[in-house]
Design goal:
The protein has 261 residues and is of the alpha+beta class. The protein folds into two domains: 148 residues, no CATH class; 102 residues, no CATH class. It is 21% helix and 33% strand. It has five helices and 15 strands. A nine-stranded antiparallel beta sheet has the order 3-6-7-8-2-9-14-11-10, covered by helices on one side. A two-stranded antiparallel ribbon has the order 1-15. Strands 4-5 form a two-stranded antiparallel sheet. Helix 2 runs antiparallel to helix 3. The longest helix has 19 residues. 24% of the residues are buried.
């Protein structure tokens, strides 16, 4: 399931988006006023600003037959977007996240993340991070890779295919098949996996091609001091790289045109 090999960058990556989210103990000052000081520090890279108020579902208290619903306060989500729209920072009173569909390699993403985190830490001084997560959302397109007609069984390893891996079952027979799982990894990390064939919607327009969605969320849920953040992120990324390589066959790996780093 996990495949350790030389690191590569793909000429034809199949990523929809990469998201890194870091959660911290609630800082009330973030939601008490607009983050003008933080914006000024990152505004040259993220000039577009917006604010969204998100409704939080009521909290259920008690047991069946004697349940109560406790209203939760709304969450203010501040959003900072790059001039080209390809990079986005989200900030609430309990997390900060960086997301992009333009990911090329870890070093570039990590460098931009370091800049954002440095400014965030200088302004808000969080005590520590309590959850650090790195999520890679892939949508394998056979048409984009010149693999039309190739079954997913030749591109994706059996463990990620579920019933589609059975030899006496045709891929076209499935109306829907999705697989989800969560497992512990070394170094205090955990994998939350969602995978299976599906369609992708962009700008509310649904792509007709059936793609294979491989959504890997690797995270660490423990107290991480600021000085250990980089090491934690590197550990998480190493797991993410190995999980992806272990999920794809040699044929798919070669079709994405890997180049050694």
């Amino acid at each position: 399931m996990f495949y350790e090999t030389d690191r590569v960058v793909y000429a034809k990556p199949q990523l929809l988006e990469v998201i890194c989210q870091l959660r911290f103990p609630t800082i009330l000052s973030i939601s008490a006023k607009e983050p003008a000081e933080f914006q000024e520090l990152i505004r040259s890279d993220f000039p577009r600003y917006s604010r969204n108020i998100e409704k939080v579902p009521p909290k259920v208290i008690g047991q069946p037959g004697n349940m109560k619903f406790e209203e939760q306060p709304d969450v203010t989500n501040y959003q900072f977007v790059s001039g080209d729209g390809k990079w986005k920072v989200n900030l609430t009173n309990s997390f900060i996240a960086l997301a992009t569909p333009a990911y090329t390699k870890w070093e570039g993403f990590a460098a931009k993340l370091d800049e954002v985190l440095a400014q965030f830490i200088s302004v808000y001084k969080p005590a520590f991070f309590e959850r650090i997560g790195l999520r890679y959302i892939n949508a394998i397109s056979r048409s984009a890779l010149g693999l039309e007609g190739t079954p997913f069984a030749e591109l994706i390893e059996p463990g990620y295919l579920g019933l589609m891996a059975e030899e006496d079952v045709q891929e076209q027979s499935f109306v829907r098949i999705q697989q989800e799982g969560e497992m512990n990894l070394a170094g205090g990390c955990r994998l939350k996996l969602h995978c299976g064939p599906g369609v992708v919607k962009r700008n509310n327009v649904e792509d007709k091609e059936i793609k294979f969605i491989l959504d890997n969320d690797i995270f660490m849920m423990s107290k991480v001091e600021m000085k250990y953040t980089t090491a934690a992120l590197n550990t998480i990324h190493t797991h993410a790289d190995r999980v992806f390589r272990g999920a794809i066959t040699k044929e798919l790996h070669e079709a994405m045109e890997p180049q050694l780093l």
